[in-house]
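Structure tokens please, single chain.
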Amino acid sequence: MSEVPLTYHISSAVIATLPRATDSVLSELAKIENVEIHGHANGKIVIVIEGSSTGMMGQCLSAISLLEGVIAANMVFEHVETGEAQKDDQRTDAA
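Here you go.
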């Protein structure tokens, strides 16, 4: 069996909203898979995004920036964990 590299990306971001829209943006963020809300105050929301690639992080942040009431969505930090998983080369134990 060969090893397949795995990557796991974790990113934090700050979302700036129009004050009157913060609650609706929070509601929409809660519906997005792999997004966790960690706090909010004064029209700013701190989130964590998890995924399998930097591209996935960027796509999620782009989608968030297009939500009604969002002024800006800025990535603050990204961390990548790498590991290895066993790849099944579709072999059998039969001789």
